[in-house]
Inverse folding.
């Protein structure tokens, strides 16, 4: 699906709301705060901006954000979990403005954390940056995942296979799927107007995953730490434009 400039400008507005949710939840996340508290902070942003949530009630999901600490990879339900010094936590946020969606996630340290955990976060962010760089007209879809995988594996980490990035527009999850792995030069050609949510999930140990009993939260099979970083990005005439950032 290729979006018009008008559609992308609506997605930019949704993206700015998501960026504000990131900013507010990042400031609020400290030892002693629950993940339900973070969800409330994010709800306030949505209300203030007149945006709707794309996460709430998605197949019955009860929050407006996903909160995934430590070995939890993605899709953690906000609740009674209290952040502890030394945790890392992934916070995934989404918003809808005039029917257009934004979706982005980050992982942050809670207080002082082990250097290894900080490195995992940095490598995950770097893998996202390298993936985004591939979002140029004429490249192939798998160039994105190949770039992500190369960065993660060079650091000795692994990328999750079972959960992937996605097209985004008038729905949160559209075709195509955007894996975080693969050989370069495969799949459909990237074209101006395409918008993807690219979202590396990087495990310190093996790539295996396990779904918890709540039917949502996904953890690493080996209990190792995992980090997640995501942006919604449009391919423009001038290369990739990250939509889920603050207005400059
Ligand atoms: Mg997301
Ligand atoms: Mg996503």
């Amino acid at each position: 699906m290729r979006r018009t400039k008008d559609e992308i400008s609506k997605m930019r507005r949704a993206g700015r709301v998501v960026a504000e949710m990131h900013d507010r939840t990042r400031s609020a996340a400290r030892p002693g705060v629950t993940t339900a508290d973070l969800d409330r902070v994010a709800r306030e942003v949505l209300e203030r901006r007149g945006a709707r949530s794309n996460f709430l009630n998605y197949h019955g999901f009860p929050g407006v954000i996903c909160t995934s600490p430590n070995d939890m990879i993605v899709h953690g339900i906000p609740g009674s979990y209290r952040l502890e010094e030394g945790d890392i936590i992934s916070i995934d946020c989404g918003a809808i403005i005039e029917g257009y969606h934004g979706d982005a996630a980050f992982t942050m340290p809670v207080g002082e954390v082990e250097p290894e955990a900080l490195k995992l976060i940095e490598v995950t962010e770097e893998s996202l940056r390298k993936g985004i760089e591939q979002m140029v007209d004429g490249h192939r879809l798998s160039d994105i995942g190949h770039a992500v995988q190369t960065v993660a594996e060079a650091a000795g980490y692994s990328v999750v296979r079972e959960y992937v990035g996605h097209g985004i527009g008038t729905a949160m999850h559209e075709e195509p799927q955007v894996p975080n792995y693969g050989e370069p030069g495969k799949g459909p050609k990237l074209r101006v107007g395409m918008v993807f949510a690219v979202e590396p999930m990087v495990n310190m140990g093996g790539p295996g995953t396990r779904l918890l009993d709540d039917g949502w939260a996904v953890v690493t099979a080996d209990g190792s730490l995992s980090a997640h970083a995501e942006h919604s990005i449009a391919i423009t005439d001038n290369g990739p434009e990250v939509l889920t950032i603050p207005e400059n």
Summary: The chain has four helices and 14 strands. The chain has one domain: 5-242. The first strand starts at residue 65 and ends at 69. Residues 5-28 form the longest helix (24 residues).
